[in-house]
Amino acid sequence: MSGMLDVVFVGHFARDRLVIGGVAEAASGGGVYYGAMAARRMGYSVAVVTKLHPDDFSFLDEMRREGIVVHAAPAPETTGIENVYPDRTMDRRICRPLGFAGPFAIAEIPRLAARVTVITPLMAGEVSAEIVRLLASRGPIGLDVQGFARVRDGQTLVTRDWPGRTRDLAGVTYLKADDAEAEVLTGLTDLRKAAQAFADLGPREVVLTHAGGVLAFAAGKFSEARFTPREILGRTGRGDTTFATYVAARLDADPEYACRLAAAVVSLKMEHPGPYRFTRVEAERRMAG
């Protein structure tokens, strides 16, 4: 693929372990995986910048078969997270780190021409503030706070405030957080007030996810849409899919449409394990229904 890309995703690809109701299985994961697959299925040209152990490079072929351009750097180990869902409602989960591919070096970030770059790390220490500023200097960026506020605490991953957020968010175009992250980082449980608090730090648009749906704040206006899965079999990657779909859709549509499309895509995605595997037409049909 040559010329201008629509969306580039930057972050660790993961080999995860999902434990649902006591039953364990291995799965591909990471914001770059769930996000890139969704954006590509929406019809956008997509590239991924990632790093992982060379023994796991073959797992990237799934994205290549979708037409996604993959730039992978070698790492001593592949990042992984164990997501434990105590029951099949999948409303709650416990996250445990299994591996960490290490921080990106600037030399591992190729200069790709893109309409937007989405920085979607899995945990703190993956993408530095220097790389955030570098990518922001090249064009619009989206940033998931998960990769800066999610830290190791013993054998689990927890959300904590991060000291440099005021500086790091200044050049961000699109910001994403979930309701728990928003409460930790803003001290607010009201999502609309939390979105405004994030926007005050510099991001032009804020996307907040919660169990029931998605809230977007752009140009002083709110958009909301509910998730409508008929059953939940694929909870992991919900936020990644939401953010990727919203940011990609904003390349050619208004915030309200992008918000509604993101909710529809995620609703379909959650009805099946793994990433979004349907078409844009099917997502728009869910929007209309």
Question: If you had to describe this structure to a student in words, what would you say it looks like?
Answer:
The chain is an alpha/beta fold. The longest helix has 16 residues, at 255-270. The protein has one domain: UDP-N-acetylmuramoyl-L-alanine:D-glutamate ligase (3-Layer(aba) Sandwich). The protein is built from 10 helices and 15 strands. The chain starts with a strand and ends with a helix. Strands 5-4-1-8-9-12-13-14-15 form a 9-stranded mixed sheet, sandwiched between helices. Strands 3-2-6-7 form a 4-stranded mixed sheet. Strands 10-11 form a two-stranded antiparallel ribbon. The mean pLDDT is 95.
Question: Gist?
Answer:
With 289 residues, the chain is of the alpha/beta class.
